[in-house]
Amino acid sequence: MARSKTMNDLQGARSGGKRWALSLLMAVVAVLGFALPFAAANGADSGESSGPGSGSVYVIPVKNTVESGLASFLDRALTEAEEAEASLVVLKIDTPGGELLSAEEIGIRIRDAKIPTLAYVEGNAASAGAYIALSADRIVMAPGSAIGAAMLVNASGQAVESPKEVSFWSSKMRSAAETNGRNGEIAIGMVNPDLTVEMEEIGRTKEKGEIISLSAEEALKVGFADAVAGSVDEAISWSGLNNWSTVEINPTAAERLASWLTGISTLLLIIGIAGIVIEMIVPGFGVPGIAGIVAFGLYFFGQYIAGFAGMESIVFFILGIVLLVLEMFVPSFGLLGLLGAAGVIAGIVIGAYDTGDALTSLGIAAGVALVVIAIFVYIFRKRGIWNRFILKESLTTEQGFVPNGNRTAWIGKEGVTLSPLRPAGAAEVDGQRIDVVSLGQFIEAGRRIRVTAADGTRIVVTEIE
Question: Mean pLDDT, to the nearest integer, of 60-89?
Fold first, then answer.
């Protein structure tokens, strides 16, 4: 009985231990189940995870004139922000506008960005700048800033009246506005002066002949701005971020130089064409040739840094120049010249941002360069390469040239042949040795002769029977 009681006691103890262990395990699970969500929530609040209220913000300036160099820079900056998985990109805009093709490329790149974009208009978002701002997900404007005035103008600042071009750009502005829920009619009113637009929110009507330009407060009321903020940090805070790190992206020195060079590409082409041609047809100066080579070098450097020109365009251009030089010295009936001109044009066009724009710039540059070349050639006409093929010397007695004298005095005089006349030969007449010619008959040496005619350089004689 004692043994049996002892075994029962042991079994009871084991059963109690199991129950105690099971109870402890359940308690631990319960504690962990409560603690883990709490810890996760605390981690999100502390900013240790990349939640919607934290992360990096890339600030990219969009300043000065909109052109191809700016498009290349913005593409590079947005790519960096995407690779860094930034929480937000802020486009700090202050531009009077610029090239529409470049603006369209920038707008497409912004809309295709893999991260949220915010346009902060700190000055003016005019013309192409307005299109860039409308392409961003959200727009925040600084007090005193403005957006709009996107009417098309030509190079001289005159309004473009082509219905086709106005309609095309109007559709682009409308599409950019409506993509983010903004009033497309107002966007068209920024481009087309012939449209009447009612803006009831600000009690204003845009009449025909006017172009819409909105202040920050007006843009906020009509929905063309989502907020008004005094600084970039305020705009970022408004966007919902409360714990961020700012990364400023600025153009490199090479990008700034490329942006400037692409802006004066037509001038560089004028200097390049004029300098090379002048050096070829009026050699000896050196300065025009050097200036032309430097100008073309800067043109291709700017296009290369901007990401438009490749090595193939440079090879085409150099080959074209070589062929043009060979045309000056190797007779090819113009074939080398045509191939050279084609190579130069191909190199310039391939290395440009836009083919149509490049051809236009090249045409303008060629026209202006021809005028410069004509003026230069006229001033230095005595040193031109054509002087190698033109006899400029005049045979005058002052310079020692003695023309043939009057030989009629020899007519009727007699003499003796010094050599056989077949029919030309030599004779002694009146004590002088002269060259004579018979009328075709053979006259032996030592025969008596008489001069019967003297015309030009010829003295005609006959044998005396």
Answer: 90
225-251, pLDDT tens digit by residue? Answer: 999 999 999 999 999 998 899 999 988
Asked if residue 273 lies in contact with residue 299, where contact means CB atoms within 8 angstroms, the answer is: no
Distance, in Å, from the CA atom of 366 to the CA atom of 352, rounded to the nearest integer, reads 16
Q: Report yes or no: 69 and 306 within 8 Å, Cβ to Cβ.
A: yes
What single-letter amino acid sits at 331?
A: P
Q: Is the pLDDT of residue 47 over 80?
A: no
Q: What angle do CA 204, 206, 211 make, to 5 degrees?
A: 130
Distance (Å, whole) CA 28 – CA 24: 6
Round to whole Å and give the CA distance between 255 and 261. 10
**Which uninterrupted H or E stretch holds 119?**
strand 117-126
The pLDDT > 90 percentage for the chain reads: 35
CA separation for the pair 412, 23 (Å, rounded): 160
Q: What is the value of pTM for the model shown?
A: 0.60
Give the CA count within 13 Å in the CB-facing half-sphere of 446.
Answer: 0
User: What number of other Cβ atoms are within 10 A of residue 42's Cβ?
Assistant: 10
Assign 3-class secondary structure to 129-158.
Answer: HHHHHHHCCEEEECCCCEEECCCCECCCCC
Give the pair of three-digit tokens for residue 345: 């044009």
Let me know if 131 is exposed, middle or buried by CB neighbors in 10 A (0-12, 13-18, 19+).
Answer: buried
Q: Residue 207, CB half-sphere, CA atoms under 13 Å: how many? A: 0
Per-residue pLDDT of 295-336, as tens digits, reads 888 888 887 776 667 788 888 888 888 887 787 777 777 788
d(CA 128, CA 130): 5
